[in-house]
Amino acid sequence: MNRIINDPDRVVEDAIQGYLQAHANYFSATDNARVLKYPAAPIKGKVGIVTGGGSGHEPAFLGYIGKNMLDAVAIGEIFSSPTAGAFLDAFKAADSGAGVACLYGNYAGDNMNVKMAIKKATAAGMAVKTVVANDDVASAPASEIEKRRGVAGEILMWKVGAAAAAQGYDLDGVIGAAQKAIDNCRSIGVGLSSCTIPAVGKPNFHIEDGKMEIGIGHHGEPGIEVSPIQSASAMAGTMLDFVLNDMPLAKGQEVVALVSGLGATPVMELYIYYAEIEKRLAAQGVKVHRCYVGNYFTSLEMMGVTLTLMKLDDELKTLVDMPAHSLGLTQVE
Amino acid sequence: MNRIINDPDRVVEDAIQGYLQAHANYFSATDNARVLKYPAAPIKGKVGIVTGGGSGHEPAFLGYIGKNMLDAVAIGEIFSSPTAGAFLDAFKAADSGAGVACLYGNYAGDNMNVKMAIKKATAAGMAVKTVVANDDVASAPASEIEKRRGVAGEILMWKVGAAAAAQGYDLDGVIGAAQKAIDNCRSIGVGLSSCTIPAVGKPNFHIEDGKMEIGIGHHGEPGIEVSPIQSASAMAGTMLDFVLNDMPLAKGQEVVALVSGLGATPVMELYIYYAEIEKRLAAQGVKVHRCYVGNYFTSLEMMGVTLTLMKLDDELKTLVDMPAHSLGLTQVE
User: Fold this and answer.
1) Residue A218 annotated in active site
2) A330 contacts in chain B (CB < 8 Å)
3) Has residue A233 got a pLDDT over 90?
4) Residue-averaged pLDDT of chain B
5) pLDDT digits over A78-95, tens only?
6) Is B156 helix (H, G, I), strand (E, B) or coil?
7) What is the C-alpha separation between A251 and B85, in angstroms, rounded?
8) S-S: A304 plus which of A191, A236, A247, B167, CB 3.0-4.6 Å?
9) A14/B232 Cβ within 8 A
10) Using the beta-carbon criterion (under 8 Å), do A15 and B192 form an inter-chain contact?
């Protein structure tokens, strides 16, 4: 394991320290060492936008703190949920009195800890509501959508929810917009290699040379199928089929396409892949209104790619188009 | 080799296609399939800023096309120089009549091809001047600085040169500013793993588990020393010593620090490393005026990190602080 770390048990603390030193414009420390907030937060009159999740997915989650983006983030160990206390302190850091929208992913630990944090927040007089992302079509059939994991679609949920808050939506309005965003997102991932958590010191799982795992999760959760590796073109077709079978798109429909590397895949390959996705969508009369291609939601040094499509209506389009800036996503036009 | 490609001999073409489809706001095609330009280029009255280099370093080089950034880029095969014809066509795409600054890295192929391109450009009546980046302290001793390679310091040279052009400097002024930028940059890299060029199909070189190569080049050029892997803290100390021995910094000096991953190193580790760099500089009374931490100049899926410091004066500070946006570097404040 050739890595750039000090103590394998302190990689999260050490990385947070680096983020704070590097980007005072994006990050302020709070009394909780596992909570970072946007320096201007809480922003008077604005609904606070909070998320949280395990580390190792950078720039997710903390890299989406920013202007017209997240106000505060609860930070967990690598691939582990933040504590209930961290979620609670993130709510406090984000709440200006207008309430907090906690927009997070559907994992057992996060569900439990968010629930506990909300209980305490409510007792303290705060209004906190949630949207739980479940965009990964590979993680459960459509009939059990409540079991699906949240993956890169979370970024679009944050973008839309945060834009709604910045535009002055109230808490119910923000929750409605973020829920609509994730309800219109579908994602799927393909893994090409494993990753090593520093404190573990050996790969989490194994993908053979010449194979790919379709539907793999962000923590190496088993996918649907291990197949011989496909060309970028065939891989795009396979992944798009999963998404479109779950969320058919009519001719003329506009979408956001988000193609994220899992960490170690060269960026040029993400663009080779994206070209194939856009070509296939165009052939069906579906237009990519906006795309994001890059390492937006990673899994340490895994190789692989995730595809997320968000079906747009006028409201989602306006919100997704709103300028924003953060480490992970900046949009100036 | 588990990769997301179609034809291994066409990865550059296929990736360019993806870039064009994904980002019409940043990229326009030209008559030369290996030259991309900023849609607004050539910008009337402004000195054109051009670079070029091999592929596989994304977001370098093409990802730095943008507003107040590069106007046109010549694109080579993976780890190979663009052709003289591509450089010439990039000059044409960038020249509004105010001349072109070609700011590129010191490699034999690039030197030869830029020289040939300039000969033809001059014959056609264009004014093209160059700055050749040589910021890699590991690639030759200070007494043979003209042999040193250009590495991630090129990004700061482009940022400064492009800002000067955007502020209305004439060609000699732009060249002077870019030359000053690179003269005040020093870089060094450490490699932790190799990379595989798709058309080759096996790793370029080998780094043993538990070892690191100090001074490695962006194409796997041998470094100064292979040592047992060090902690992030010790690695930062080792690398900083090389830089500061070559470019001593007085107490009170302000710098830009650029920490770039080589591709596969998890971003959180780049921040662990950055914290160590900043701490050491602070102990010497050196202030980081601005930092960039991320995958700015990569080598496919190599693991490792590069450190670049740029010593600032008032002019460089103003130019580096100018807002800009591009795929690889966006600065809104």
Assistant:
1) no
2) 325, 330, 332
3) yes
4) 97
5) 999 999 999 999 999 999
6) helix
7) 42
8) A191
9) yes
10) no
Instruction: Check if the beta carbon of residue A86 is closer than 8 Å to that of residue A72.
Output: no
CA dist A275 → A144, A178, A236, B259 (Å): 32, 28, 9, 30
Measured CA distances, A303 to A222, A266, A275, B1, B2 (Å): 15, 9, 19, 11, 8
- Burial code (b: 16+ CB inside 10 Å, e: under 16) for B245-260 equals ebbebeeebbbbbbbb
The two three-digit tokens of residue B137, written as one number: 């302290």
Amino acid at B39: P
Residues in chain A: 333
Q: Which domains does chain A have, with CATH numbers?
A: 11-183 (3.40.50.10440), 185-312 (3.30.1180.20)
The CA distances from residue B317 to A240, B60, B255, in Å, are 47, 22, 9
Residue A16 DSSP SS3: helix
Residue of A nearest to B291 (CA): A22
Q: Which of B23, B57, B289, B325 is catalytic?
A: B57
- Tell me the per-residue pLDDT of B274-325, one tens digit each, with 9 for 90 and over: 999 999 999 999 999 999 999 999 999 999 999 999 999 999 999 999 999 9
Q: What span, in angstroms and rounded, lies between the C-alpha atoms of B179 and B8? A: 37
A57 assigned to active site: yes
**Nearest by CB to B272, which of A18, A212, A273?**
A18
CB atoms inside a 10 Å sphere around CB A248: 10
pLDDT at A13: 98
> What are the tokens at B309?
């410091």
What pLDDT shows up at residue B333? 65
- The amino acid at residue B250 is A
Instruction: Kindly name the residue from A206, A219, A289, A325 that is annotated as catalytic.
Output: A219
Token pair listed for B219: 């194409």
First-to-last C-alpha distance (Å) of chain A: 41
Calculate the alpha carbon distances from B97 to A15, B42, B68, B126, B159 in Å: 48, 9, 18, 7, 21
With beta carbons under 8 A apart, name residues in chain A contacting B256.
none
Dihedrals phi, psi of B211, to nearest 5 degrees: -120, 160
DSSP B30-82: -SSTTEEE-TTPSPTTSPEEEEEEEESSTTTTGGGBEETSBSEEEEEEETSPP
Interchain contact B268–A (C-beta under 8 A):
yes
Residue B120, exposed/middle/buried by CB under 10 A (0-12, 13-18, 19+)? middle
For B:186-225, CB contacts with A below 8 A are 192-193, 207, 209-212
Contact B268 A56 (CB under 8 A): yes
**Token pair for B29:** 């095609």
First to last CA, chain B: 41
Provide the number of CB pairs (under 8 Å) joining chain A to chain B: 187
Q: Vertex A134, ends A131 and A137: CA angle to 5°? A: 160
* Whether B65 contacts chain A with CB within 8 A: no
Sheet holding A330-331, edge to edge: A66-67, A324-326, A330-331
Q: Is A284 on the interface with B (CB under 8 A)?
A: no
Contacts of A333 in chain B (CB under 8 A): 25
Phi, psi of B113 (to 5 degrees): -70, -35
Of the candidates B43, B42, B73, the residue with the CA atom closest to the CA atom of residue B59: B73
CB A5 within 8 A of CB B269: yes
Nearest to B58 among A266, A327, A330 (CB): A266
Q: How confident is the model at residue A333 (pLDDT cuts 50, 70, 90)?
A: low
Distance separating alpha carbons of residues B63 and B73, to the nearest angstrom? 9
